Amino acid sequence: MVDEVYDEFLTALGREMDALKMGDPMDDDTVIGPMSSIGLRAELHRQVERCTTAGGKIVKGGALPDGEAAFYPLTIIADAPFDAEVCREEFFGPVALVFRAKDEDRAVAMANDTPFGLGGSVWTGDGAHGLELARRIEAGEVVVNGLVRSDPLLPFGGIKRSGFGRELSAFGIREFVNIKSVIRD
After folding, report:
1. Which of 33, 91, 148, 162 is the 20 to 30 A CA-CA neighbour of 139?
2. For 134-144, what is the mean pLDDT?
């Protein structure tokens, strides 16, 4: 997050997370359901603990809930060292790591300085400028002023160590067929 809006962003992110209902995915009011397993929840919590041990500060959440359900609280971790090993991992759960960047160029460099590249987002009051920034980010999908999501009309997949090929759309269906060349001389 660019330094000049960092604190404001953290406050707004926490407020938005507070507005999301976690619960039974069959309930129409639920926005955040459980993780796919207790084991994955435990692994996510180990990552959160390693991140705080490395120097990250819990802004919201981060406590392992009691019970047998695979729920994990929406969590924000700020100010973790960008080069910490745990910060170079993918977090598969409702955890947001927020890093401070002195300016846009540094923010883009940080976004690209990862072995992963499934998706990212750019948040800005200037949509045209957001598109310019999105073009500079190395990911299979970059959304301006929105969250990464799949759409059956658009190809979806990552780059680097995030995925193999594409799914969805005409591009995705080609991933499921083998093309054979037969030549007659």
Report:
1. 33
2. 96
Closest CA relative to residue 169, chosen from 151, 156, 153, 158: 153
To 10 degrees, the CA torsion angle through 113, 114, 118, 122?
-30
**Mean pLDDT, to the nearest integer, of 26-43?**
95
- Give the model's pLDDT for residue 5: 92
Regarding the domain delimited by 3-146, which CATH topology (the fold level of the hierarchy) does it fall under? Aldehyde Dehydrogenase; Chain A, domain 2 (3.40.309)
Question: In the chain, where are the structural domains located?
Answer: 3-146
Contacts of residue 99, Cβ cutoff 8 Å, sequence gap at least 6: 1, 79, 80, 82, 87, 110
Average pLDDT across the chain, whole number: 92
Q: Are 35 and 72 in contact (CB under 8 A)?
A: yes
